[in-house]
Amino acid sequence: MGDTFEAVKEVIVEVMKIDGKDLSMETRFIEDLQADSMDQFFLIDGFCEKFDINISDEDARKIKNVKDAVEFIDKAKA
Length: 78
What we know:
mainly alpha
């Protein structure tokens, strides 16, 4: 999970143009990072590209924070 977290963090830093030092598993995309709908789209797209997985629209709506993303990606890669 640590490797996945670091890779998810890289995507978030790149998409959101932020310094990732304060990112944690509890960081929420909308409330904490002020991600709008386009940011969310680019985050999901970035995760799909980085991990070579597909995330359906239904699953994407369930990914609200870093932990959700890491857990979904770990499960998709398993």
